[in-house]
Amino acid sequence: MITVISLGGSIIAPDSVDVPFLRDFRSLIAEELAKDEKRQFIFVTGGGGPARTWQNAYREIAGAANVLDEEADWIGVMATRLNAQLIKALMGAWCTQPVITNPSEVGPFVGRVLVASGWKPGFSSDYDAVLLAERFSAPLVINLSNIEQVYTDDPRKNPGAKAIDTISWADFRAMIGGEWKPGINVPFDPVASRHAERLGLTVICAAGRNLANLRRLLSNEHFLGTVIS
Question: Fewest C-beta in 10 Å: which of 120, 137, 143, 178?
């Protein structure tokens, strides 16, 4: 069984690298791999703090009138590659293949873990996760970030925002819009969402740092999160 996880940069490196989280995350993955010798994981990393910091520097220096979305996207992609190389190194002998930087050119899955980064401008690494789920016939993408569920509105700004347990792709896409902008703050990238809906893929959004909850999710037990399908 292949499990595809979009591992948000906000939990890998919100500002600097979150060493305690990554240590515990690696231990959880070790447990899961030991329980089932046929289990495989694909991790697709986001950019997190490095992406925001370097993109903001570009915007500040270049000036708003001179900022190109493609250049900002490339900066974000490079941050995802840094995080991906770290995750690959942490996976050790379980990950025998180089970091995937182009999900449209992927050979067979060798070993227990594959690690992928962002690919190119126009979307986030969520889209790469969807493409890899398609390539390896995985029915599900687990999207781990710094939010525990999708809400009807931003709960930090609107105390009346309500958590959503399940939502259709049509309703989710109407809520987030269809336009991609570098650094956009949505639970799941609109480009990735469009393709996931087309594939009939299910996406679960959950809090990445809640490893007890992730353990339940991976064991098909009751978990806290939002199911988009």
Answer: 137
**What is the tens place of the pLDDT at every residue in 13-27?**
999 999 999 999 999
Q: Where are the domains of the chain?
A: 2-228
User: pLDDT at position 159, please?
Assistant: 86
Residue type, 185: N
Q: Give the C-alpha distances (Å, rounded to integers) separating 20 from 12, 16, 211.
A: 10, 12, 12
Across the strands, what pairs with 27?
none
Burial class of residue 138 (count of CB atoms within 10 Å of its CB; 0-12, 13-18, 19+): buried
Domain 2-228 is found in CATH 3.40.1160.10? yes
Q: Confirm whether pTM is higher than 0.90.
A: yes
